[in-house]
Design brief:
The complex is a heterodimer.
Chain A: E1 9-13, E2 18-23, E3 31-38, E4 45-50, E5 55-56, E6 61-64, E7 70-75, E8 84-92, E9 108-113
Parallel strand pairs in A: 1-9
Antiparallel strand pairs in A: 2-7, 3-4, 3-8, 5-6, 6-7, 8-9
Chain B: E1 5-7, E2 10-13, E3 19-24, E4 31-37, E5 44-50, E6 53-57, E7 64-68, E8 74-78, E9 87-94, E10 103-104, E11 108-112
Parallel strand pairs in B: 2-11
Antiparallel strand pairs in B: 1-3, 3-8, 4-5, 4-9, 5-6, 7-8, 9-10, 9-11
Classes of the chains: A mainly beta, B mainly beta.
Chain lengths: ~110, ~110
Protein backbone atom coordinates (compact mmCIF):
# COMPACT_ATOMS: atom_id res chain seq x y z
CA UNK A 1 0.00 0.00 0.00
CA UNK A 2 1.02 3.58 -0.60
CA UNK A 3 2.64 5.25 2.41
CA UNK A 4 1.37 8.69 1.46
CA UNK A 5 -1.87 10.62 1.84
CA UNK A 6 -2.88 13.34 -0.60
CA UNK A 7 -6.06 15.33 -1.17
CA UNK A 8 -8.00 13.86 -4.09
CA UNK A 9 -8.33 17.15 -5.96
CA UNK A 10 -7.27 20.79 -5.96
CA UNK A 11 -7.90 23.85 -8.11
CA UNK A 12 -5.43 26.61 -8.90
CA UNK A 13 -5.73 29.82 -10.90
CA UNK A 14 -3.43 30.16 -13.89
CA UNK A 15 -0.31 32.14 -13.04
CA UNK A 16 -0.62 31.51 -9.33
CA UNK A 17 1.47 29.15 -7.24
CA UNK A 18 0.09 25.64 -6.79
CA UNK A 19 0.92 24.09 -3.42
CA UNK A 20 0.27 20.35 -3.27
CA UNK A 21 0.49 18.77 0.19
CA UNK A 22 1.48 15.20 1.05
CA UNK A 23 1.53 13.35 4.37
CA UNK A 24 4.01 10.52 4.90
CA UNK A 25 4.02 10.11 8.65
CA UNK A 26 5.56 6.61 8.61
CA UNK A 27 8.52 7.48 6.38
CA UNK A 28 11.77 5.86 7.46
CA UNK A 29 15.27 7.28 7.43
CA UNK A 30 16.30 5.56 4.20
CA UNK A 31 13.28 6.64 2.16
CA UNK A 32 13.16 9.52 -0.27
CA UNK A 33 10.13 11.58 -1.22
CA UNK A 34 9.42 11.55 -4.96
CA UNK A 35 6.88 13.48 -6.99
CA UNK A 36 5.57 12.42 -10.38
CA UNK A 37 2.72 13.74 -12.46
CA UNK A 38 0.60 12.14 -15.13
CA UNK A 39 -1.17 14.02 -17.83
CA UNK A 40 -4.16 12.19 -19.21
CA UNK A 41 -3.26 8.94 -21.00
CA UNK A 42 0.49 9.58 -20.86
CA UNK A 43 3.20 7.89 -18.83
CA UNK A 44 4.09 9.45 -15.46
CA UNK A 45 6.64 12.25 -15.62
CA UNK A 46 9.28 12.74 -12.95
CA UNK A 47 9.19 16.13 -11.24
CA UNK A 48 11.52 16.19 -8.24
CA UNK A 49 12.74 14.20 -5.26
CA UNK A 50 14.42 14.83 -1.93
CA UNK A 51 15.55 13.23 1.31
CA UNK A 52 15.44 15.90 4.01
CA UNK A 53 16.54 19.17 2.49
CA UNK A 54 14.39 21.42 0.36
CA UNK A 55 14.98 20.95 -3.34
CA UNK A 56 14.35 23.12 -6.38
CA UNK A 57 14.64 22.48 -10.10
CA UNK A 58 13.32 24.05 -13.26
CA UNK A 59 9.89 22.53 -12.77
CA UNK A 60 9.12 22.84 -9.08
CA UNK A 61 10.23 23.17 -5.48
CA UNK A 62 9.93 20.51 -2.81
CA UNK A 63 9.60 21.53 0.82
CA UNK A 64 10.06 18.72 3.36
CA UNK A 65 9.26 19.37 7.02
CA UNK A 66 12.03 18.94 9.56
CA UNK A 67 10.47 15.76 10.97
CA UNK A 68 10.01 14.50 7.38
CA UNK A 69 6.41 13.52 8.04
CA UNK A 70 5.00 15.76 5.36
CA UNK A 71 6.03 17.68 2.27
CA UNK A 72 4.70 20.23 -0.21
CA UNK A 73 5.27 20.40 -3.93
CA UNK A 74 5.21 23.96 -5.24
CA UNK A 75 4.62 24.87 -8.87
CA UNK A 76 5.53 28.57 -8.75
CA UNK A 77 3.51 29.82 -11.73
CA UNK A 78 0.92 27.24 -12.73
CA UNK A 79 -0.16 27.06 -16.37
CA UNK A 80 -3.02 25.20 -18.02
CA UNK A 81 -0.50 22.56 -19.10
CA UNK A 82 0.15 21.73 -15.45
CA UNK A 83 -3.32 20.20 -15.17
CA UNK A 84 -2.57 16.59 -14.25
CA UNK A 85 -2.66 13.99 -11.49
CA UNK A 86 0.24 14.53 -9.10
CA UNK A 87 1.63 11.56 -7.17
CA UNK A 88 3.67 11.80 -3.99
CA UNK A 89 5.69 8.62 -3.38
CA UNK A 90 8.14 7.44 -0.74
CA UNK A 91 10.86 5.23 -2.12
CA UNK A 92 13.60 3.37 -0.29
CA UNK A 93 17.24 3.62 -1.14
CA UNK A 94 18.99 0.45 -2.22
CA UNK A 95 22.71 0.94 -2.53
CA UNK A 96 23.35 -2.73 -3.13
CA UNK A 97 21.81 -3.02 -6.56
CA UNK A 98 18.49 -2.31 -8.18
CA UNK A 99 16.37 0.60 -7.07
CA UNK A 100 13.28 0.38 -4.94
CA UNK A 101 10.02 0.29 -6.81
CA UNK A 102 7.53 3.18 -6.84
CA UNK A 103 4.29 2.64 -4.93
CA UNK A 104 1.66 4.97 -6.30
CA UNK A 105 -1.43 6.07 -4.42
CA UNK A 106 -4.36 7.79 -6.08
CA UNK A 107 -2.65 11.17 -6.23
CA UNK A 108 -4.08 14.67 -6.38
CA UNK A 109 -5.90 15.81 -9.49
CA UNK A 110 -4.79 19.41 -10.01
CA UNK A 111 -6.98 21.54 -12.23
CA UNK A 112 -5.46 24.83 -13.35
CA UNK A 113 -8.17 27.25 -14.39
CA UNK A 114 -7.87 30.38 -16.53
CA UNK B 1 18.44 10.38 -27.10
CA UNK B 2 15.31 8.30 -27.27
CA UNK B 3 13.58 7.88 -23.97
CA UNK B 4 11.76 4.75 -22.91
CA UNK B 5 9.94 3.22 -25.86
CA UNK B 6 7.15 0.68 -25.66
CA UNK B 7 5.43 -1.39 -28.30
CA UNK B 8 2.77 -1.77 -29.38
CA UNK B 9 0.89 1.36 -28.32
CA UNK B 10 -2.51 -0.31 -28.47
CA UNK B 11 -3.56 -3.94 -28.49
CA UNK B 12 -6.83 -5.85 -28.45
CA UNK B 13 -6.85 -9.47 -27.34
CA UNK B 14 -9.47 -12.09 -26.62
CA UNK B 15 -10.02 -13.58 -23.20
CA UNK B 16 -7.79 -16.64 -22.70
CA UNK B 17 -5.14 -15.51 -25.16
CA UNK B 18 -1.54 -14.63 -24.38
CA UNK B 19 0.16 -11.29 -24.96
CA UNK B 20 3.73 -9.99 -25.07
CA UNK B 21 4.57 -6.34 -24.51
CA UNK B 22 8.00 -4.86 -25.20
CA UNK B 23 10.09 -2.12 -23.66
CA UNK B 24 13.38 -0.49 -24.63
CA UNK B 25 14.92 1.46 -21.76
CA UNK B 26 16.48 4.88 -21.93
CA UNK B 27 20.11 4.84 -23.04
CA UNK B 28 22.38 4.08 -20.10
CA UNK B 29 19.63 2.52 -17.98
CA UNK B 30 19.89 -1.11 -16.91
CA UNK B 31 16.89 -1.49 -14.61
CA UNK B 32 13.41 -2.00 -16.06
CA UNK B 33 10.17 -2.05 -14.09
CA UNK B 34 6.64 -2.80 -15.26
CA UNK B 35 3.44 -1.27 -13.94
CA UNK B 36 -0.24 -1.88 -14.58
CA UNK B 37 -2.63 1.07 -14.47
CA UNK B 38 -6.35 0.40 -14.46
CA UNK B 39 -8.69 3.20 -15.43
CA UNK B 40 -8.91 5.84 -12.70
CA UNK B 41 -6.22 4.24 -10.54
CA UNK B 42 -2.55 4.90 -9.91
CA UNK B 43 0.02 2.58 -11.49
CA UNK B 44 0.57 -0.72 -9.65
CA UNK B 45 4.02 -2.30 -9.57
CA UNK B 46 4.26 -5.69 -11.32
CA UNK B 47 7.96 -6.54 -11.23
CA UNK B 48 11.46 -5.22 -11.79
CA UNK B 49 14.37 -6.64 -13.78
CA UNK B 50 18.02 -5.92 -13.21
CA UNK B 51 20.99 -7.84 -14.60
CA UNK B 52 18.53 -10.08 -16.46
CA UNK B 53 16.91 -11.31 -13.25
CA UNK B 54 13.61 -10.53 -11.59
CA UNK B 55 14.60 -8.59 -8.49
CA UNK B 56 11.30 -7.46 -7.03
CA UNK B 57 7.71 -8.49 -7.59
CA UNK B 58 4.41 -6.93 -6.69
CA UNK B 59 1.18 -8.72 -5.88
CA UNK B 60 0.48 -10.18 -9.32
CA UNK B 61 -0.25 -13.82 -10.22
CA UNK B 62 2.17 -16.10 -12.04
CA UNK B 63 0.27 -15.44 -15.27
CA UNK B 64 2.41 -12.30 -15.40
CA UNK B 65 5.99 -13.07 -16.32
CA UNK B 66 8.86 -11.19 -17.82
CA UNK B 67 12.29 -11.27 -19.27
CA UNK B 68 15.23 -8.94 -19.63
CA UNK B 69 17.72 -9.28 -22.47
CA UNK B 70 21.46 -8.57 -22.45
CA UNK B 71 20.82 -5.20 -24.12
CA UNK B 72 18.56 -4.35 -21.11
CA UNK B 73 15.33 -4.37 -23.13
CA UNK B 74 12.46 -6.23 -21.54
CA UNK B 75 9.27 -8.10 -22.26
CA UNK B 76 6.13 -8.53 -20.21
CA UNK B 77 4.10 -11.66 -20.89
CA UNK B 78 0.58 -12.25 -19.69
CA UNK B 79 -1.02 -15.69 -20.13
CA UNK B 80 -4.68 -16.70 -20.00
CA UNK B 81 -5.91 -13.14 -20.33
CA UNK B 82 -8.86 -12.04 -18.24
CA UNK B 83 -11.17 -9.11 -18.86
CA UNK B 84 -9.68 -7.53 -15.74
CA UNK B 85 -6.25 -7.42 -17.35
CA UNK B 86 -7.44 -4.56 -19.53
CA UNK B 87 -5.24 -1.64 -18.53
CA UNK B 88 -2.43 0.67 -19.50
CA UNK B 89 0.87 -1.16 -19.06
CA UNK B 90 3.79 1.11 -18.28
CA UNK B 91 7.49 0.43 -18.45
CA UNK B 92 9.99 2.48 -16.45
CA UNK B 93 13.77 2.45 -16.64
CA UNK B 94 16.49 3.72 -14.34
CA UNK B 95 20.23 3.33 -13.79
CA UNK B 96 20.47 0.46 -11.34
CA UNK B 97 23.12 1.62 -8.93
CA UNK B 98 22.29 5.28 -8.59
CA UNK B 99 19.31 6.57 -6.69
CA UNK B 100 17.69 8.76 -9.27
CA UNK B 101 14.47 9.24 -11.13
CA UNK B 102 12.82 6.50 -13.16
CA UNK B 103 11.70 7.42 -16.66
CA UNK B 104 8.40 6.07 -17.95
CA UNK B 105 7.33 5.16 -21.44
CA UNK B 106 3.98 6.17 -22.88
CA UNK B 107 2.54 2.75 -22.20
CA UNK B 108 0.69 0.02 -24.04
CA UNK B 109 -3.09 0.14 -23.85
CA UNK B 110 -4.31 -3.47 -23.64
CA UNK B 111 -7.99 -4.23 -24.12
CA UNK B 112 -9.23 -7.75 -23.45
CA UNK B 113 -12.60 -8.61 -24.99
Amino acid sequence: DAKTTQPPSMDCAEGRAANLPCNHSTISGNEYVYWYRQIHSQGPQYIIHGLKNNETNEMASLIITEDRKSSTLILPHATLRDTAVYYCIVRYMNYGGSQGNLIFGKGTKLSVKP
Amino acid sequence: DAGVTQSPTHLIKTRGQQVTLRCSPKSGHDTVSWYQQALGQGPQFIFQYYEEEERQRGNFPDRFSGHQFPNYSSELNVNALLLGDSALYLCASAPGRRHTEAFFGQGTRLTVV
